[in-house]
Design goal:
Blueprint (H helix, E strand, L loop, with lengths): L1 E3 L8 H9 L3 H9 L3 E3 L15 E4 L18 E4 L3 E6 L16 H8 L22 E7 L2 H12 L4 E9 L6 E5 L2 E3 L7 E3 L8 E9 L3 E8 L6 H8 L23 E9 L6 E5 L4 H15 L1
Parallel strand pairs: 6-13
Antiparallel strand pairs: 1-3, 2-3, 4-5, 5-6, 7-12, 7-13, 8-11, 9-10, 11-12, 13-14
Length: 300
């Protein structure tokens, strides 16, 4: 594989390639050390800063192996048939395994629950789309590759609908709004996403106010695109971060129960029947408890 650096960057090669190749930083470092990765046909250090015109050559490498084990974890299954499973994901559950975290994920639970899952991605069986560990709510799982491809296409073509409810800091005066701001890696912290014009992708979120409190607003959000941490980044960008968000919140957490962001509605066309299906689920207790505090503050 060969990459030519077209953009104007000031970023370490190990950080850049970790994102591009979706490999761990330590794995990239080993590849740089052993000469599997070269810049302009020369070995470089992990700290090498990429610049415009650099040609990065990446030799053959083997993916780090993960042994995915079925784990008996109770799932809140909203709907299931031969092609799909719709799940209400609880707070704190990671969707799929990664190096260093190969158990107690949704995938581990799915492997225990069903022998039929799509294998489009070897380490993410069944997973068509994701939500953050501390975001609760609905997602659809594919039980075969045909369903996986059809559902993925619906999401990319914006035929599937995903609606969220969130509690955000501050009072939003407008009843509706659209946030159209590109999202990419944060240049100062590569573990975070940010609204940026560098190496970004378009991102659009639609917002509707449900209720206003003294210092917060309950909103419904609809995704037009599906970028990593999109809602959290967009709400932070407009200075109304998600309540209890540990990364983008810019406020002290109220408790450790997770951010007030819930995927409450999910709609898609069934991959076999082509019938439109829509599902809804209530707010989780952790969200309700925080919401109650704001309700009481309004009353008292």
């Amino acid at each position: 594989m060969e990459l030519k650096i077209e953009e104007n960057l000031t970023i370490r090669i190990d950080a850049y390639l970790s994102e591009k190749l979706e490999l761990s930083r330590s794995r990239i470092s080993k590849m740089i050390d052993d000469g599997t990765i070269l810049v302009n046909d020369k070995k470089v250090k992990n700290s090498y800063l990429l610049k415009t015109g650099d040609i990065v050559k990446i030799g053959e490498y083997k993916e780090e192996q993960m042994n995915l084990e079925p784990v008996n974890i109770k799932l809140d299954i909203v709907y299931e048939d031969e092609d799909v499973i719709v799940i209400n994901k609880p707070n704190g559950m990671v969707v799929h395994p990664a190096i260093g975290n190969t158990t107690n994920t949704l995938v581990n639970a799915l492997l225990y629950h069903s022998k039929n899952l799509s294998d489009v991605n070897e380490y993410r069986p069944g997973i068509v789309h994701r939500i953050d560990a501390y975001t609760t709510g609905l997602l659809v799982v594919a039980k075969n590759n045909k369903s996986h491809e059809i559902l993925s296409k619906q999401i990319s073509e914006k035929k599937a609908s995903r609606n969220y409810i969130a509690l955000v800091w501050g009072v939003i005066n407008e009843d509706t709004a659209t946030i159209d701001a590109p999202i990419g890696r944060d240049n100062n912290d590569r573990k975070k996403m940010a609204v940026t014009s560098i190496n970004s992708k378009n991102a659009v979120t639609h917002l509707k106010v449900i209720k206003r409190f003294k210092d917060a607003t309950l909103v419904e959000l609809k995704l037009e695109t599906g970028r990593t941490h999109q809602i959290r980044v967009h709400m932070n960008y407009i200075n109304h971060p998600i309540v209890n968000d540990p990364v983008y919140g810019r406020r002290k957490k109220l408790d450790d129960t997770g951010q007030c962001l819930h995927a409450y509605k999910l709609g898609f066309f069934h991959p076999t029947t082509n019938k439109y299906m829509e599902f809804e689920c209530e707010l989780p207790e952790c969200f309700k408890n925080i919401l109650d505090k704001f309700e009481k503050e309004m009353q008292g």
